[in-house]
Amino acid sequence: MKENIHPKFGPCEVICACGSVYQTRSTKNTLKVETCSVCHPFWTGKHKVLDTAGRIERFNRKYASKTAGQTSK
Questions:
Q1: How many CB atoms within 10 Å of residue 41?
Q2: How far apart are CA 35 and CA 17, in angstroms?
Q3: Is the predicted pLDDT of residue 65 greater than 90, yes or no?
Q4: Is 16 within any annotated ligand binding site?
Q5: Mean pLDDT computed over 9-23
Q6: Cβ atoms < 10 Å from Cβ of 13
Q7: Mean pLDDT value across the chain
Q8: In this structure, are residues 28 and 42 in contact, taking their beta carbons and an 8 Å threshold?
Q9: What is the pLDDT of residues 37-57, one digit of tens each?
Q10: What burial letters (b/e) apply to 28-39, b meaning 16+ CB within 10 Å?
Q11: How far apart are CA 1 and CA 34, in angstroms?
C-alpha cells in the first residue's frame, strides 16, 4: 500500500437513537445511527408480520394454469 494516502482506521463510538452505545473501529470517530440490534423490530420480535398467505394464493392462482401444462425434463 502507498504511504500517507489512506485514512486513519481507529476506535469508533456508534451511538443509536435508542441510547445504545457500541465500540467498534472505523475511519470516523463517532457514528450516529437510527436503529441497532437492540431496537430494530426484526431483532426485538416486534416486527409486523405481512399477509404473505394472500400473496402466495394470488401467485398460485395467477401461475397455476401456466405451470400445470409444463413438464420437467
A1: 10
A2: 7
A3: no
A4: yes
A5: 93
A6: 14
A7: 81
A8: no
A9: 888 776 677 766 666 667 778
A10: eeeeeeeebeeb
A11: 35
The pTM of the full predicted model, rounded to 2 decimals, is: 0.52
Q: Is 12 annotated as a binding residue?
A: no
**How much is the average pLDDT of 8-20?**
92
In sign, the C-alpha dihedral spanning 45, 47, 48, 50 is negative
What would the CATH number be for the domain defined by 10-64?
4.10.80
Query: What is the rounded CA–CA span in Å between residue 69 and residue 10?
Result: 61
Q: Note whether 12 and 30 are within 8 A (CB).
A: yes
Question: What percentage of the chain carries pLDDT values higher than 70?
Answer: 75
Distance CA 62, CA 15 (A): 47
Of 34, 22, 28, 33, nearest in space to 10 by CA: 28
Q: Which three cell numbers stand for residue 67?
A: 405451470
